[in-house]
Amino acid sequence: MTASTTASQTELKQAQVPLAWRDQCSALLIPLNTCRRKNAYLPWECENERHTYEKCQYDDYIRRMKELSKRKLAAAEEE
């Protein structure tokens, strides 16, 4: 993940992002939530922002799974 997808703690606090959602894609969540509030959470609005956020979440998941498999492989080789 690049640093451009992670917001600072002050930005997250100002945007009232809950602690559970402050992850690698937090900077993308701020404009998504702003758009959602502006458009009364209509599902067909903010599609681009939602897709970008969900893609970031998926890429982060894939990155973490690759890291986990590397750790498991390294642990198996040590045994």
From TrEMBL:
Record localization: Mitochondrion inner membrane; Mitochondrion intermembrane space
Entry membrane topology: Peripheral membrane protein
Homology family: Belongs to the complex I NDUFB7 subunit family.
Keywords: Disulfide bond, Electron transport, Membrane, Mitochondrion, Mitochondrion inner membrane, Respiratory chain, Transport
Claim: Endoplasmic reticulum is one of the keywords in the record: no
Predominant location: mitochondrion
Role noted for this protein: Accessory subunit of the mitochondrial membrane respiratory chain NADH dehydrogenase (Complex I), that is believed not to be involved in catalysis. Complex I functions in the transfer of electrons from NADH to the respiratory chain. The immediate electron acceptor for the enzyme is believed to be ubiquinone.
Pfam name, any one: NDUF_B7
Lineage, opening ranks: Eukaryota, Fungi, Dikarya, Basidiomycota, Agaricomycotina
Official protein name in the record: NADH dehydrogenase [ubiquinone] 1 beta subcomplex subunit 7
